[in-house]
């Protein structure tokens, strides 16, 4: 069969219509809200997002979608615009119903975290005892996580980061599941693959059940033999799930390959580049982010904003496009990050802005100049452009802030787990 040649046309954003195939955006990935650059434009909300972006032009492929001339000939410009605007308004109303504020989702997310932890403990215990993992029992749980992430991604993802060191193995799986779901949604994967991504995150570290707790929870440095034992967990997890008929190939691959790196320096198989599946590349980013932001027996977790900065510097580790999509999920300054404003105030990030990654919603609470608490106030930095802005990330330890999470979550801190 003869391959059809592309018919590329550069058009203005105002000419873009549903049914067109986007071949390439004429701008930086920071200028538009999409991870992928080539797709058929079928969703009104996507058209609205593109129109509201900083883009001015893009390329369409008329061989794979509607042509500009076809669109204009089939309906008048006024008809097309009226129909599109009606669809956009309907989509916008749906989004407004679906989205909630952080404080409205926190308690629901807390209950989901607790339920998820209990499910992971049960599954991992079964795996340690050589029993088959009952994946069918977590299907509805993954749906709950997905809905919570849709309502407010910062709630469940940030709560799961507050795990205690001794529950790390279980809550890390919950956190990675939520991150995988958020990332899959950002990548606009089909609903069934979003669910598979959530299951993959929940089970990616199940192979650690083959490793003694004395090694997993060791407070000091691991010996070479112990480190090699830890590095065996991807293959062990893959083997545990291999013959389970309810486990998809995508989930299996994340178990096996979430420690592979794009430059081929990862493990267990030193797979590199595009030979690593998309799900495994997603798993690598989500796994590392939660690991480095969490308290462990041998180290304190890094601040989330500092973690994003450091991950961006690790050349050869992550797929660049997947990492960009991940940053759009959690933000350059994720929920819970401590930042200094140009006004001299310290603030904790509450949630992301829809306008820019650089202007999140923050809660100011401390004067960096006089070093005293100030009246707490929530500020949307996207609405005070030119009057205040973030000038740096800050390390909470340098300020001796012990319970920063109480400021953004409203939950009282304690040494006891939040999820028991």
Automatic annotation (TrEMBL):
SMART domains: HDc (SM00471). Transmembrane segments: none annotated. GO terms for molecular function: phosphoric diester hydrolase activity. It comes from the Bacteria. CDD domains: HDc (cd00077). Residues 147-342 form the HD-GYP domain. Gene3D superfamilies: Hypothetical protein af1432. This is HDIG domain-containing protein.
